[in-house]
Amino acid sequence: MLVDDEELARALVRQLLAAHPDIRILAECANGFEAVKVVAETKPDLLFLDVQMPQLDGLEVLELIERDAAGRPAVIFVTAYDQYALKAFDANAVDYLLKPFDRARFETALARARTRLDSGSAPALDPLVPRGAPLSRVVVKDGVTVTVLPVSKIDYVKAEDDYVLLRADGRNHLKNQTLAGLEEALPKERFVRIHRSYLLNLDRLVRLEPSATGAPTAVLTDGARLPVSRTGAQRLHDRLGH
Amino acid sequence: MHPFFTQSGRLGLYLLGWIPLTAILGGLLVLAGGLSLLEATALSVPLALLYAFLCLSSWYLCRAFPVDSSRLLATASALAMASIVAASLWLLSGTTLAWALALLPAFQTLPDRLARAGPVVFLLGVLLYLLVLAMHYVLDAAEKVRVEERRAADLRTLAREAELQALRARLNPHFLFNSLNSIAALVAERPEEARSMCALLADFLRTTLGMSERISIPLREELALARRYLAVERVRFGNRLTVSENVDASTLDVAVPPLLLQPLFENAVKHGIGARLEGGVLSLVTRRSGGRVSIVVENPADARAEKPAGTGLGLANVKRRVAACWGDAGHVGARLHDGRFRVEIELPAEA
């Protein structure tokens, strides 16, 4: 399956694949949303994935692809930007093709993909690749619907077993990730861990209400009330400067 | 506040300059009024010190009456009046001091003899005042030259930065990589298009060569470069990129710094077209009204984006260059409105 927003870039991969009659192109996608959906439907073995794409980039696509062993494709990144190379390998991509590339380089990547697929031991794709810079948005998938949540729209994040629940615009979104992992990726100046199970967007905090037990309750702009632990209260005080 | 009071070194130098003037005053008192050396010293030292500070007031005059040939008469009469007033005040304080000293037995006849030297002291007062005034004008002019030199140096720095930035834009590696990738894709199946893409790319690169060495170019050349750039990007993005142009012919000869608009077009393509599935229309409008020219570059913005990401650097550079070239006469405005990102540059229409 080929994913690239530029028709010509897909055409180049298509042309080079023509020399391999045993490889069938299941689908071509021009954007990330479509790619997530089509990967779930067609379950390709191999994915050629551009990084820079409108609305949902290649790394986000990777994040949203089903992580059960059966549906996991081998991924070759194709991009003009080499700064994503390390991250792509963190994500266990098979190879990383820098545009423009020649047939020899393409064949090497393809051979690697074949080895990976034959051995049948495709390592798990890392769910959230560290990007160096804090996330500006979080992508979530509910069935086939992909939602992009700008971090400013997120009220708070709650840990729920293997998932995190993201509260945004009055709706709940589930994401298969740990709270600690998401805390690490979100901008530190905006989000504070107020409790073992809660990460709060500081912009949403209206006031802290003291309680009999000593640990206060955080009241948010929409009236929601979240528990605050002792360490959480300490972090809030440090952050708010009093 | 007079600049001498903020720079103590200069005040010291100025007062040092008054030591010989004090000696001249004393000498005149001895010669014209027949004062003894002791009397002349007792009078001239405090008087000179007082006048040294009084004369500093001429700085305000210098500020109020900048050198301007059209107001020469008004300026000259104001300065003459000021020097007469200052000298009169000086003579008055001298006389007062003499009367005060006359209380001492040794200085009893001092007021009479000072009155004899009065006209000379008054004349000296006028001259000294004018001298300090002249010094202020000279210092002011030197300061202006210094400021002007610093501004010129700033301009040179900015121009060099712009040149570096232009060089980077010309050699923007991702633009080149993606263009080369398009060519690689076209070569096998549409060789004719691959050839024309090579030509377009070469055209663009050749136009930028040498462009940044010039201080200013006519807007028509800047727009020609933009068209070449957009032609290359149109091959890459296909029908996702549509360009709409509404260029007023009377704006074409207006002088702009080279590659001023290039970052705007690059931003518009990268964020306005490249970040949208459906692409969109990039519009360019130039207009002239009276002595002003307005250049508007507009592109559709990703509705989901909170603000156009990454446009900061290119836009900041455009703003700084406009400010460096035209100061307050130039203006750059950017805003997100109705799902479109719009940058407007307003400049004086100078050929």
Q: Would you give an account of this structure?
A:
The complex is a heterodimer of chains A (242) and B (351). Chain A is an alpha/beta fold and 242 residues long. Chain A folds into 2 domains: 2-119, Response regulator (Rossmann fold, 3-Layer(aba) Sandwich); 137-240, OB fold (Dihydrolipoamide Acetyltransferase, E2P) (Beta Barrel), CATH 2.40.50. Chain A has helices spanning 7-17, 32-42, 58-64, 85-90, 103-119, 179-185, 230-240; strands at residues 2-3, 28-29, 46-50, 74-79, 95-98, 137-142, 145-150, 154-160, 163-168, 171-175, 191-195, 198-201, 205-209, 217-220, 225-227. In chain A, helix 2 (32-42) runs parallel beside helix 3 (58-64). Chain A is elongated, with a radius of gyration of 21 Å. The longest helix of chain B has 61 residues, at 110-170. Chain B starts with a helix and ends with a strand. Chain B folds into 2 domains: 3-152, no CATH class; 171-348, Heat Shock Protein 90 (2-Layer Sandwich), CATH 3.30.565.10. Chain B is built from 11 helices and 7 strands. Chain B is α+β, with helices and mostly antiparallel strands.
Question: Key features?
Answer:
heterodimer, A: 242 residues, alpha/beta, Rossmann fold, OB fold (Dihydrolipoamide Acetyltransferase, E2P), five-stranded parallel beta sheet, five-stranded antiparallel beta sheet, B: alpha+beta, Heat Shock Protein 90, five-stranded mixed beta sheet, two-stranded antiparallel sheet, 11 helices, 7 strands
